[in-house]
Structure formats: C-alpha cells, structure tokens
C-alpha cells in the first residue's frame, strides 16, 4: 500500500509539472504541439551521482527539440528506470528533475525509421548546493507574503508567524484593509457588503455564526487569503465591496495527523472558553478530515442613547442608559469531509458542517424623558430578555476532473443549506412619573420569532487552457432560497397571551437566481495580461405577508461585465487596471416588514419594497518589488441599502428601517507597506485615505453627507529571546459617514505572545485585545430640523485570552524529499 501511495503521489507531481517543465530553460513558453505517434522507445536509468543508488519516482519529461513545453512525462520506478514508448521519429530532449538535486537535460536524442529505439543509459543527478546547506539555515518567515494579481491580492499565511497559535478569525481580522465588528460583520477598506468564502464556496452563515466557525479554526489550517476587491465574472455578483476567500491547506501527509486545543477569555465581566480539535487521515485514494469545536462565547455592551424630538407644540428630550449581555453555547460544531481520487484525473468530495447553539441575552435600559434638557418628567425601566436556538447544516458535493496537463478542468458543486432559528423574548416595561404622584404602570410583552431558510445551489465550471498562455472559462449556476418567518407579538399583561395583530407578521419569501458567465484570459505580448468577462444573472423573487395579504414580486435580468489588465513595466514594477459591476440584494430579514421591538420608543422594521443596490467599481493598482502596493479605486453605488431612522416627534418614537438611499460615491487610495524594522521585527502596514459621499432625500430635500476618511493599520511580528513570538496590532480610524450618520474617530491596540514547546508540538499563546479600551463607537445623525439621534456604545472588546494547542502525527509518513517534491512542483505553475 505504501509503494502504491507513493506512486500515486508521484503521478500527481508529474501531471502538475508537465505544463511547466520547460520553464527551467526559458521564461517565454512556446505553444505545445502534438507530434505524430510512432513506435519509437526512449529509456534509461536515473541514479544518485554520489551513492549510485537509483532515484525512484523522479520526474522525467519528454520535449521536442527546440520546444519549451513537455508533451509527455513519466516517473522512474523503484530501480530508477524510465521508458517512453509510442514515440514518432524525430529529435527530442529529456529533462530530469528531483527536489534536492540539480535539474539535468539530455539533448540530441534522435529516433528514425532505422533506429526506433534510443537508450540514454545511466543518468546521474548531482545534489544541488541549496540542498547541502538547507539544514544549516534557520529560516523564519515573520510576515506573510503579499502578491498582487490582476484581479486580487493574495496574502500567504502558510508557514508564517502570523499563523502560529492563532485562529482563522484573528488572522482574517488583521489582513490588509479588513475590519470585523463584534457581531462578525466585515468591512473591506472601510466599506461594508463583503462576501466570505471558504475554498471558493459561499459560507451561507450569518456574521455571528461565521465568527464562531473561524474562531474555532486554527490559522495553521489556512494556506492563503484572497482579497478580491473587484471579482471577475466567475464569482457571484452579490456583494458591493468584494470577496474574502479563505483557502485552507490540503492534507499531504499519509496516515493520521491533527491537533487539539483549549482556550479561555475574560472581558472584565464574563468568562468564555473554546475547545476542540481536528483529525486528518489520508490512505490510498481517500483523504478525510474531521473537526470538532465547542465554545461559550460571551459579550455585551454599555451604551447611552440621546435623542431630541422637535414637534410642532413641544420638544422632547430622550436620554437612555443601556447594558446588554449575551452568551452563546452549544454542543460541538462538527465539520467533516472526504475526497476520493477515482484515478489520476478525476476525484469527488463530500463536506458537511453542522452547528447548533443557544443564545441567552438581555438588554436593560433606564430612560428619562422630558420637555427640557436634564429635566425629565417620566422614567421608564425596560428589561428585555431573549433566547434563541440557532441550527445550521451546510453540505457540499464536489467533482473535479483534470483532462490534460495544461490545466483544462471541469468542476461541479451541489450545495444544500438549512438554517433555523427558534427564538422568543420577554419585555418588561415599568413607567414612573417623576412630577406627579401616581402608581408605577407596567406593560409586559412577549414575542415568538421562529424562522428558517432552505438554500439549494448547483453550479458547473469549465476551464480550457489554450496555447500561448490563453485560457477560456465558462460556467453556470442555479440557486433557490425558501424562507419562512412567522413572527408573533403578544400582550402579556394577563394570564392569557393576547395577540397584537399590528406588530405580528407571517412572511414567506422565495427566490430563484440563474446565472451564467464567460471569462477570457490572454497575454498581449511580453508585458500585458488581459482578463475580460461577462456574467448574467436572472433573479425571480416573491415575498408574501400572510398576515396582510401583501405580495411583492421581482423579476429582473442583470449583466455584470468585468475587465482586468495587468502591465509588467519592469521586473520590479507592475500596474493593474480593473473594472467590474456588482449587485447587493437585500437579505431575507431586511425584506420582512415585521416590527422588532427594543423598548416602548424604539423599533426596527424591515422593508418589502427594498430594491437591489448596484455598484460600478474602477481601480488602478501599482505594485513595487512584489511587496509594496498603491491602489486607487472609485466606487459609485446606486440605490444604496442603508439603515434610516424615522422620527415621530408626536409620539417620541424612533423606527429604524432599511431603505434605498439615492446613491453614494467612494474615492480611496490604499497603500500596503511591509517594513523590516530589525532582523527579527517585521511590520505590515496599511494606509487608507478615502472620500465618501452619500446623497439622501429627507422630507423631499436632498441631503449630502460626506467626509474624508482615513485608516491606519499596523501589524507587527517580533521574535523575542527564549523563542517568544510577539505580535502587536494597532488600528486607527478617522471620522467617517454612513447614510445619514456621522462616525467619530477611534483606535485600538491588540497584543499577543506565543511560545512553542516539545519540538514545536505544543503551542501556548496569550493575547490581550483593545488594551486601552479605546474601541468605542460613537455615531450621530440629525434627521430633519433639530431632531437628534446619537449613539455612544462600547462592546467589551477589551479582553484577555489564553490558548493551548497540541499537534500530533501518527501512522505512515512520506520521506521529506518526496513530500517536498510535490510542493516544489506546485511552485512551477507561475
């Protein structure tokens, strides 16, 4: 079994390398040709030049004389022998390669009708100089390598100090231009509307549950993070600010390996914990994994809300102090999958992820209201308690076929996602007059909010590699969403619950999306690479309020073009130009017109009439020495989806709803500057300067809300004595705007320490977040003449955490040289 597995891995190495075997000779590949078949044979033996021992499973490529593209290849057997059969008469070259050895080429091999067989004899490979000194060099990559491609930025995480002892969530949160709020909502370069993918597949999780998934995943499982600010036509058009695609490493070790971990956190008021582990197992054609993660995630906020309601007869001043707490806990989340190689060219895979947890939360407010500042005449004590059971099942069936060594592939995916929420809440309101003597009045309310989503998706992608570096991509996708939200609101002032029909709503939403795309990649001369694409998406949706009988239908077809041009000015300087059109459809909860209750004077309500938001994105990115980049981008959003406060001065009530702001503009300049401050101190720095402008109609008048916004993000990795690794992350955000709101500046600092023991099998890490308790969110909006709506909130980001992780291996192990051979051949595909 061991020899068979080695052979299969060697075959994989061979097929990955055939298309690029000629790169060792020149960087200007010529088109491959298919020579006529014949009866010729070329054979020989490959050995180590020092020991004379045969080299087994080394790569042998056959090229026509003068060509740089291999058209056939094989592997040496256990005796180092290789054979090419069925070769036509002609002149050939044979290239031998094996990691740790110098590549060698045998030229002037001639076959003819008279001499159809050529024996090249024994070929001896010498060990490379790099291999002889490799063990003497201790290389430690402190910061990730950042590569700028035509349509994306790739942040390589594998093998860096950034990944050691950290979670996937922490690494994502410190990626260039990325900001994640306490609820898991993600911004990219100061803009919301980011789509998150794992291994190129949509997660279909809410921000909070996506955070739970990433917090339980070791960063050492991550290969790289693709930051795609202008996605090509291959990707779903959903998402106004781009895509963050987290690519996980593939297990390449025979036998069993994995890790277990445990950690705890404390935010000054609450304790949380996380524990779990992962197991990878590869044997023969099977490659399987299992991860279990269980956590008790805690959080809360302290906030003050200030409002002024200007009415025709009087003005009401509203001052509220609030405290919120929550804890989320459940049985272990399970993520498992397996890949099966049918043969060297075809494989199938299955993945499933199941998570369920229960949330307990409260939101306690003290509100003072009066007709003059600091002179209240009414006090409201509102205590809200909510419980929610969340369950998500995500499954994927995948097929991949490789049809040649140039990169022609066919892949297909089937996805099924089922998400359910079973929630209920109690609201206890006590009213006390502060100016006249009267008994305290009480108003008790109850809500039941079960909802769920079933998501079905199927897609197929075909890539055809052509001569001269050209590539054609085609694909199609169909998806369906079925949503059922039965939100019921009750008066709870007697022994029997009394239904409130005004605030009760049963909402059903169905949506079908059909998409197709074409992408074309080509080189234009030596310095230009072009990628052009077009995606079409047909959306059919139907939303129905069973309670009111209101039905909203949508049926629209959109085209989403994309264009990327990469110019290689010099070996150290490149420029990329890009354009794409995107869409942001309302999420299903935003379309539900149900009233979400917070206190007697504050509600949130969905909007079934929401229209999609469209974005035109233009960008120019300059890359220096492959590490430094300067990106200029312009985004024009139409029908912006944003939260809008609606003020009713007569009842002193604020209803927060979702509406379509007319449009917004964003002009930004982003610089990424990695710096090696000292030999053992690396720093990654991101500077963003942007101009944001929102245009909104309020009371039939156009309101312009604009601001120059800036953000500085610095991630520092430092090697300390005693093999301690330290990371210091600092972020500062300047003043910003969003729809009608203005956001005040804020900044924060996170610090972490990590140490490895037991031959690097055991990792111990300690981290402190928001050290100076400065990540406070202050937002203000002025709606109409004199109406004020201010927020001042702190979400308990300051916390301290401790994590221990142990890695293990058991079973068969590939020899280091053979395992590295696969990795080296992967790097030839540049």
UniProtKB/TrEMBL annotation:
Highest taxon above the source species: Bacteria
UniProt domain Outer membrane protein beta-barrel: residue ranges: 402-806
Subcellular compartments: Cell outer membrane
Protein name: TonB-dependent receptor domain-containing protein
Keywords associated with the record: Cell outer membrane, Membrane, Receptor, Signal
Alphabetical list of SUPFAM superfamilies matching this protein: Carboxypeptidase regulatory domain-like (SSF49464), Porins (SSF56935)
Signal peptide annotation: 1-24
UniProt keyword Signal, yes or no: yes
InterPro entries: Beta-barrel_TonB_sf, CarboxyPept-like_regulatory, OMP_b-brl_3, Plug_dom_sf
